[in-house]
Amino acid sequence: MSESTTAPAPKKRDRSEKRTGPFLFYRQVVAELRKVVWPTQQQLTTYFIVVLVFVLIMMAIVSLLDLGLGKAFFTIFGGRA
């Protein structure tokens, strides 16, 4: 038999824990953004074209399925001619 594992219960926040102040939060955000590897202009253009082509193909597939299934249902269930 496999063992059943459950997720640990979330920790309750103690009143003694201090919240992060806005300035510390801003500094941490800036530090994290410096670690990001930003795409080059060529990579960005390539990614944009790939996503655009994918979305257009998916739109065509969904449109054709909608048109085909709509006509099929109207034919099957005696819709208007």
Provide key terms for this protein.
81 residues; mainly alpha; 62% helix; single chain
Q: Assign a percent range to the helix content.
A: 55-70%
DSSP, total strands: 0
Find the structural class using helix and strand composition.
Answer: mainly alpha
Count of individual helical segments: 2
User: Strand fraction band?
Assistant: under 5%
Major β-sheet annotation? none
**First-to-last CA distance:** 60 Å
What is the approximate shape?
flat
Show unreliable segments: none
Cα-atom Rg, whole angstroms?
Answer: 27 Å
Order of helices and strands: HH
Mean pLDDT: 88
GO molecular function: protein transmembrane transporter activity
Subcellular location: Cell membrane; Membrane
Organism: Nocardioides terrae
Function: Essential subunit of the Sec protein translocation channel SecYEG. Clamps together the 2 halves of SecY. May contact the channel plug during translocation.
